[in-house]
Amino acid sequence: MPKSNTIAGDYRGVDEVMAYFARRRELAARTFRMHPGDLLTGDGDRVAVLTDGTATIGGVERRWSTVGLYRLRDGRVAACWLLALDQEAFDVIWSG
């Protein structure tokens, strides 16, 4: 079920996105790391990136995998949707 963890939600604009990054970093005691994998592109303005993540939360090292879907505009990210490959496990990791 979407939005069942402490970092789930819609973030709009630079201030909200930066606050999201800060919250995620705080929950992971600055141990959050992204491990980019394959980049999937087409002819349009969207790309997908397979990315694994790691963080130590509550003294336990956690790992997960996601697909990040990005819409680009003028060479910059205009929108992003993060899809966990195992949403239930992702929600447990980020449940605070």
How would you portray this structure in words?
- The protein has 2 helices and 4 strands; from the N terminus they run αββββα.
- Helix content is 23%, strand content 46%.
- It has a 4-stranded antiparallel β-sheet.
- The protein has 96 residues and is of the alpha+beta class.
- It has helices spanning 13-27, 87-93; strands at 33-41, 46-57, 60-73, 76-84.
- Structure class: alpha+beta
Q: Which percent range fits the helix content?
A: 10-25%
Model regions low in confidence, pLDDT < 50 over at least 5 residues? none
Adjacency order of strands in the biggest sheet = 1-2-3-4
Task: Count all strands and give the number.
Answer: 4
Rg (C-alpha, Å) = 14 Å
Strand content: over 45%
DSSP summary: helix tally: 2
What is the H-and-E element order? HEEEEH
Profile the largest sheet.
Answer: 4 strands, antiparallel
Shape descriptor reads globular
Mean pLDDT, nearest integer?
A: 92
